[in-house]
Every structure is written in C-alpha cells, then in structure tokens.
Specification:
Layout lengths: L17 E6 L3 H12 L5 E7 L7 E2 L2 E5 L4 H8 L3 E4 L6 H12 L4 E4 L4 H5 L8 E2 L2 H5 L10 H6 L3 E5 L4 H12 L4 E6 L2 H12 L9 E3 L5 H11 L3 E4 L6 H6 L1 H21 L4 E5 L10 H14 L7 E6 L2 E3 L5 H10 L4 E3 L5 E2 L1 E3 H14 L5 E4 L5 E2 H11 L7 E3 L20 E2 L5 E4 L8 H13 L3 H11 L13 H8 L5
Parallel strand pairs: 1-2, 1-5, 2-4, 5-6, 8-9, 8-11, 9-10, 11-12, 12-13, 13-18, 14-17, 15-20
Antiparallel strand pairs: 3-4, 6-7, 16-19, 18-22, 21-22
Family: Belongs to the polysaccharide synthase family.
Organism: Amycolatopsis pithecellobii
Protein name: NAD-dependent epimerase/dehydratase family protein
Length: 497
C-alpha cells in the first residue's frame, strides 16, 4: 500500500505506555490526545494522528502521519499497539469499514461514542469504548421523536411487564424520562427488580410501591393489580423467548406467551386502561417455532380487542444488541473465554438493532396505534453471523477463532423475515416503522384458546402443538428432535479431529 508522504518525523521510542495512533485530528481527537498526555495512568501514549484533511500537519504537538487509508502501513511502520478512532460524527457504515481495517492490523482498537455531547464538552479518555459487535454491524440508528410520544406518557400511570428484562428495563428508563405520574415495574423475578431499581435510581432498597412481584399467568393476581393500580398505559414485554427451550417445553410457552398475554389484555379492558402494547418478535412472521407461533397468537389476542374501549397494538422486531442471552452476548463470552464459537449454519443471518433504538421505536409505535395494528420495525439488512464472529474475533486478538457449526435446531430458520406471506406492508408517519394487519381474527379464537390452555395445563406437548397449528395457519410443529449420526458422534467424541 502506498503511504502518503507527509513531512518527515523521527519515531519517538521514549514514550511510556502503549503506542497509540489517533484517527481524526479534529476537536475530539485533539482533546483526547491532550487528555491522554496528561493522564499516563490510562496506559495509552499517543504518537500521532491520521486525517484526510491535507491542511493538517500537527495537532496537540503531535504529527499527522498520514491519511485514513494509510492505517495498515502506518501501524506496521510505527509499531502501533492501539488505534483510537476519534471521529464521533463518522457515519456507522464508514465507522464499521474503518474498524474492520483497524482490527486486521492486529492492534487493539478503541473508539469514541458517536454522540454530539462528546464533541460539545470535549472528548476525554474516560469516553473510550472497546469496540463491541454493535459497532462492527455498520447499522445506522435513527431516533425520530415525535411530539405525540412524550405527550402519550407524561402524567399517565404506566405499567411495564417483564420490567427486569433487557427490553423491559430499557422501556422503564425511557418512559421515566417522559415524566409519567407513576411507573409500575412488574416482574416475576425479584432479582431482576433489584437490579433494575439500582440501575434507574442508584438505590436498591426494594421499598418502592412501583416495584411489583407477580406472575402474569396468575389471572386473579393480574386482575387484583389492575383494579388497584388502574394503569392507563400497558407495555407488555414479559415472555419466554429462548427458541430451543420452548421447542422442548412448548406448554410453558403457551402459558406465558399466550395465556399470560390474554390475562393482561383482558384485565386492561376490564379496568379501563387506555392503551395496550405487546412486544412481539420477527419470529412471529411465518412462524416455524413454538416461540414464533405463541407470539403470533399473542398478536391475534391483542388485535381481537379492536373495537373495545382500548387502543391496542403489537410491535415486532428482531435481535437486540446487548440483551442477555442473545447471540452477541454469547459471542462476547465465548471469545473472551477462548472457547469455540457456536453457530448453527454457515449461511445463517439475523436482523439486529440496539436495545435503545428498538425501545425508542416501540414508544413511537405505541403513540401511532389505532386499531390493533402490528407495527414492524425496519431492522436494516440482515447480518451474516459468520462475518460478525470473524470481525469481533479479530478485534479481540483471536484471528484464528474456532467456529463450530451445530446445525439448525428444530423450529429455526436460516433467515428471518419481518412479514408473513399474507401480510401487507403499510407505511406510517415514521421512516423506520411500518404496519401490517394480516388475516382477520378467526371467530372461533376463544374456543380454540380454551382447548390450547387445557393441553398446556396437562403438559400435553403434542396436543398443544396441534392446537397452535389450528389457530395459526401455516405453522407446523417441528416434532421431537431426532439426533443425526454426526450429533451422536459429537456427543460421545466432543474433541474429535
């Protein structure tokens, strides 16, 4: 690669700390370089900058060594150990390209968060982020907050179920910022509530009336809570969500994802709630799994109340970055532990977005709901998991990462879709949200639900699967998993050659 010929300089071999190259000689980069020079305890010693502005030669008493394209050659020539990307305004696609190029050099990579406050107050060493899988996706976040969204929440009594989960806790954080009269945070796991209160308030005394321990499958308890609290807005995020477990225990999925949803929306109607929003999943579109089928049925239950004295809607999206138990969470653990990374298939891909963006769009969709629509978030382009693993492994300094392909599990797809075959995409007033209504609610829904609940109560997985198939056209239970010869071999000889 040809390196741009900047004025000659002498390589400083006396620096104390990891030799650090800063990408970007603008305000953020200069402030960061000064901070690092004044804070040797950070362990990073800046030696110079990269910048495409030909007018820049020096910044913060350090040379500008070349253009951004010269990065790999300069890392080798200057013995760079750490590369810091200090261009907070860089679009995500360009940031991802630059990060990929940097990780391939073998240097450790850090970057500054891309928000305006970092530039407004001056970027500091404490702002440095380790590059996460989210940064490598190159997906642009759009956060459009319409006036109707804060107005929907301000001064209202709001209930969030599954409040201690990844989506629920972020819902609570964003809702709280809009000034509700009361925010009731419900979860069946007291440890989740303990952590949530600590994150939101800085205290975890568990003495607030807003913290509620309850099981949404307990219909009497649900009705007692609605009668007492009288929530006006309900965001229902509680669910069983791990696909392989629900294939093995489908009746539990029915009890929580279907019966629990009906308990809540029925109580919301009975006790005068104004609006009910279900958090759904892309697996509900053309479902092939118990998870997808139960969430699709939950969408139908929510839509069945169209015409009642309540506004209902569902919001469907794919994987969220950083959620507990998600692929990216598992990936980070496996890479850090130097374990083989497990992927089902070389061709598998998934939709991803950050939890903050997903929840922001959920609140926007909630304000747009009118008649039981299912809102679908625009997730951008699907990401191939193998590419994501390789990029993150290079970043973590494990270029020879081992990937173990386990095979698609019952109910899994190679690629997800956001709409079913019979669902029409309907534009909304938001650039990242569209709606769909799909088939009308079947008139015998309640009778079918009764049979489904009876099967779940008996823990009759086969009967539950049949009733899910009757209620959700196109869904077929995967049936019991029969291990392949390869799976049997791996079970007995896990370290085979």
């Amino acid at each position: 690669m040809r390196v741009t010929h900047w004025p000659s300089h002498r390589r400083d071999t006396s620096v104390s700390g990891a030799r650090t190259l800063i990408v970007g000689a603008g305000d953020a980069g200069r402030t960061l370089a000064h901070d690092l020079q004044q804070t040797p305890s950070c362990g990073l010693a800046p030696i110079g900058f990269l910048d495409d502005d030909l007018r820049k030669r020096h910044a913060a008493h350090l040379p500008v060594l070349g253009r951004l394209a010269d990065l790999p050659a300069l890392v080798r020539a200057e013995g760079v150990e750490v590369v810091v990307v200090a261009i907070p305004s860089l679009p995500p696609v360009q940031l991802a390209t630059l990060l990929h190029r940097a990780t391939r050099t073998g240097a450790r990579v850090r970057y500054l968060p891309s928000f305006h406050a970092a530039v407004q107050r001056g970027s500091r060493a404490g702002d440095l982020y380790e590059v996460s899988p989210a940064a490598l996706l190159g997906r642009e976040e759009i956060n459009v907050i319409r006036p109707a969204t804060p107005a929907l929440i301000r001064g209202r009594r709001v209930l969030v179920t599954g409040a201690g989960g990844s989506i629920g806790s972020e819902l609570c954080r964003q809702i709280r910022a809009y000034g509700p009269e009361a925010l009731y945070m419900l979860d069946h796991d007291e440890s989740n509530l303990h952590r949530l209160q600590l994150e939101i308030t800085g205290e975890a005394l568990l003495e607030a009336d807003e913290l509620i321990v309850a099981d949404i499958r307990d219909v009497a308890r649900v009705n007692q809570l609605f009668a007492t609290l009288r929530p006006e807005l309900v965001f229902h995020a509680a669910a069983h969500k791990h696909l392989p477990l629900l294939e093995r225990h489908p009746c539990e999925g029915v009890k929580s994802n279907v019966e629990g949803t009906k308990n809540l929306v029925d109580a919301a109607v009975t006790h005068g709630a104004h609006r009910f929003v279900l958090i759904s999943t892309d697996k509900a579109a053309a479902p092939t799994s118990v998870l997808g089928a139960t969430k699709r049925l939950a969408e139908l239950i929510v839509r069945s109340h169209t015409g009642d004295r309540i506004v209902t809607g569902s919001v469907r999206f794919g994987n969220v970055l950083g959620s507990r138990g998600s692929f990216l969470d598992v990936l980070a653990h496996q890479i850090a532990s130097h374990e083989p990374v497990t992927i089902t298939d070389p061709a598998v891909d998934r939709f991803f977005m950050t939890v903050e963006e997903a929840v922001g769009l959920v609140l926007e969709a909630a304000a747009m709901a009118e008649c039981g629509e299912t809102f679908v978030l625009d997730m951008g382009e699907p990401v191939q998991l193998v590419s994501l693993v390789e990029a993150y492994a290079a970043l973590a300094g494990v270029p020879d990462v081992t990937i173990k392909f386990t095979g698609l599990r019952p109910g899994e797809k190679l690629s997800e879709t956001l709409l079913g075959e019979t669902e029409e995409r309907i534009p909304t007033g938001h650039p990242r949200i569209f709606a769909t209504r799909g088939r009308p609610v079947p008139p015998d829904l309640d009778a079918g639900l009764g049979e489904l609940y009876d099967a779940a109560e008996r823990n009759d997985a086969e009967a539950a699967g049949r009733w899910l198939a009757k209620l959700i056209p196109g869904y077929r239970p995967a049936g019991p998993h029969v291990p392949t010869a390869r799976e049997l071999f791996d079970a007995f000889y896990p370290d085979d050659f």
